[in-house]
Amino acid sequence: MTPQEMRKKAIEMMAVQRFHCSQAIAAVGQEKLGKVSDDVLRAMGAFGGGLGGNGEVCGALAGGLAVLGLRYSRANRDEKENPRMWADAQELVRRFRDEVVNQNGAIDCREIASVDWTDREQARAFYRGDKVKKCIRIVGETAMLVGEMLERD
Predict the structure, then answer these.
(1) CA-to-CA separations, 122 to 101, 125, 136, in angstroms, rounded
(2) pLDDT tier at 72, thresholds 50, 70, 90
(3) Rounded to two decimals, what is the model's pTM?
(4) What would the pLDDT profile of 8-64 be if each residue is shown by its tens digit?
(5) What's the gap between Cα 138 and its chain centre?
(6) Contact 139/26 with Cβ under 8 angstroms?
(7) Where are the alpha helices (DSSP H) in 49-130?
(8) Are 3 and 147 a contacting pair, CB within 8 Å?
(9) Helices (H) and strands (E) in the chain, counts
């Protein structure tokens, strides 16, 4: 799966299939790595809306970091964690903030999406209006960025 294919699939997952941003990024990243797990996809659902709908760190960024963890971290004490994870994670956060979002250093969902997820009416309006288009764009660009990073390393 190329970074461009990752972008396309992540956009479809969010815009058409109604997955959360965090799930869309995690899904295409897992597929790219050949490590697909429905359990990981389910777990990533709680990261949508900025960490459980609280407007904190963007779910797309959380999904991207999860993909890097899947690639470089460990699941038991006999495995070794690749220290490359930290450099790539820092690069992903920086590039997400400065290139993908490019909104005065914002990485929090409430600032990016301009919505209070705890207000049901604001959440409904988000999906009915144009604000969702910005997040769909961010999901696509984040998926492509993660794909490019995975191909490089």
Answers:
(1) 21, 5, 17
(2) very high
(3) 0.95
(4) 999 999 999 999 999 999 999 999 999 999 999 999 999 999 999 999 999 999 999
(5) 9
(6) no
(7) 59-72, 84-95, 109-113, 120-128
(8) yes
(9) 8, 0
